[in-house]
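Changelog note: in this version the structure field was regenerated for every chain. One regenerated record is shown below for reference.
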Amino acid sequence: MNADTQSADRKAWTGLAVLVLPVLLVSLDMHVLSYALPFISNSLEPSSSQLLWIFDIYPLMLAGLLLTMGTLGDRIGRRKLLMFGAAAFGTASVLAAYSTSAGMLIATRALLGVGGATLMPSTLSLIRNMFHNAEERRVAIAVWTGAFAGGAMLGPLMGGALLEHFWWGAVFLVNLPVMALLIALAPLMLPESRDPNPGRFDLVSAVMSLGAMLPTIYGVQHIAQDGPSRLPVSAILVGLAVGYAFIRRQRSLNEPMLDVKLFGNRGFTASIAANTLGVFAMVGSSLFTTQYLQMVAGVRPLVAGLYALPAAGAAMTAAALAPRLVRKVRPAFVVGLGLLIGAAGFVVLGRLDGGSGVAALVAGTATMAGGITLVLTVSSDVIIATAPPEKAGTVSGLSQIATEFGGALGISVLGSVGTTVYRADLKDNAPQGLETSALDSARDTLGGALDTAGRLPDELGRALAAASREAFTHGLQVAMYTASGLLVLMAILAATLLRNVRLGKQAPVTRPMAAHRAGRAQPRHRTDEHESLNRW
């Protein structure tokens, strides 16, 4: 039987359940720490810079090493790399839970990022090699995406529940049983796969990819938190310069770490862009919704986590529907529809105000999560189908880089929009009689404003708290409408670039950009086990 039509056996579907474990855990770990930071501050007494690094170092290491780890998995074996990552992740979780200083926690969070970078591309590339039938692979990727999106939504709930009953280290210890189960089951349920002709590992390219990602994401995140300044802007410029040199090097190599010709494919490029912008909007919105629930609506962390359940349910439902939709309609329609649904969710979020309660927030986040997950599921399928099986790790790493970079950009861009509006509103509407130092502190963040208000005389404090909440809500509204507008533009772009992509029973067919510009249709080739989506 042809490899492309061979159905997966029961062991492959059981192996998929094993692969969901690290995906769910890494996604949870990205979000579970947000509610624990105040408890960590009280316990370890980090400086403001150390507290920032405790939060930032994990996504920085994760994003910086994804491409390198994906390429390494192609060479040494994806299952082997997955098990190594699980052991590293579990070890780092124990060390993080029992950290005795801020420096120790920063170091262990960095190790967690290294472990996470091995887990994510390994899972997606193993799916590519376990499910050769296109329809079955589509279902498997839908399960993978649903687990990732569900973990992002359930992370705050788990964090809130644990912190209600245990000390802050418990948010790390939940990783241990999952990693132990993964290490025990992976040799039994997952096949080993690797590139049969990997070539030599290019250490220079690996260092350059890290040198491009780390300073760029660092700069983007710090501009969101502190505004533009010399250090983060310089970091972004350095990262972009190294990234340019990295691309030039890949073009000159016979066996590049990253095949830049992939970006000549309309379907691949549009799917990467849709993934990036979808995560941009989803992560950027969470920056506002979590603060709104706790500091405007005044709910406890556990209750705030419960409000995320409808969004998690919508995300998993959308992931389940995506494979069925693309059997009947083109990906251009499904991706465009998902982006428009997400945009509608942001319009609902943009209507929040201080008296609207949380009903609009729950409805908006559920609508947004369902639409964006629909996009991520279909675009991930197109991206991974582009890769020949022996290069699946590299392309999986690239897909995850787009996800991480989209999240960092979402926090930076939407955070900057909201912060600009917040500071301008508070400057204009702050209560009379407020000292300049108190106003400066209040204009920094909503949390800082409420803390300052608590130290002022009753009437003045209440007036400052009300003004700061109103200013924050206005900033949220503008940021949500901004995200909605960007998703509408991306829907138009995706519908245009993906219009020639078809996901039938076998591999998708697209026309490369050069052929499209020339007005000539490429002859359609079946994608076999060792061919890419198109002939370059």
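Spot check on this record: Residues 203-256 form one domain. Confidence is low (pLDDT under 50) at residues 505-536.
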